[in-house]
Amino acid sequence: MATTTCIFDAYGTLFDVAAAARLAAAEPRRAALAAVWPRLADDWRRKQLEYSWLRAVMGRHADFWTVTEDALDWALEANGLADPELRPRLLALYRELPAYAEVPTTLAALKARGLATAILSNGSPPMLAAAVASAGIGSLLDDVLSVESVGVFKPDARVYGLVTERFGCARDEVLFVSSNGWDAAAAAGYGFRTAWVNRAGLPVERLPARPHHEIPDLTPIPDLARP
After folding, report:
1. Hey, what CATH topology would domain 5-15+98-224 get?
2. How far apart are the C-alpha atoms of 33 and 64, rounded to whole Å?
3. Does 172 qualify as catalytic in the annotation?
4. N or C: which end of the chain has fewer CB within 10 A?
5. How far is CA 226 from CA 63, 112, 174, 185, 220, in A?
6. For the segment 75-114, what is each residue's pLDDT rounded down to a tens digit?
7. Which of 44, 46, 141, 142 has its CA nearest to residue 93?
8. pTM of whole model > 0.90?
9. Chain centroid to CA 78
């Protein structure tokens, strides 16, 4: 069936999750962070995802901002960073993460062809609203869907169901795009056609389903969405 709807994960797919640590590390008097910022960014992201999965399994949901704060606290301690000004600065930068360079043109190309576009994210509505506004892409999106509507994080099937409920489309009309291999795999298992944005060149996840496409960035998405 032809694609009618293109759905994007937010963090790591549209927005550069390493940017908060990278930008803070370039500021004056941040020598300690500058020495370890890539590791801090990796630790922060890894714990953010791990805590979302663990909370889903335990049935102890909290919004993604709480998870993001908890993950940052762990990462700061793990990297020996005790500057009291650093935590609020990193969190402020995380609220306004920049979009990857190809995001506006990709979304614009999809909209020009009449496709519906939206975000489907673990992020809480205030987080997502801030990121979308900062990146200036709100006019290129038909909706921003958050897991807070169902109270559980990805890859729970109820999250992917928000898409078909919102757009009234069949599962095989959806092209779902994520930089998380596990997310793209889970969405493929749900019945979406999926594209994994493998920016880091990682191996494919060994899960029951696999992404239909593997791409290095978002540039190929308009072609993949063609009938």
Report:
1. Rossmann fold (3.40.50)
2. 24
3. no
4. C
5. 35, 12, 12, 21, 11
6. 999 999 999 999 999 999 999 999 999 999 999 999 999 9
7. 44
8. yes
9. 24
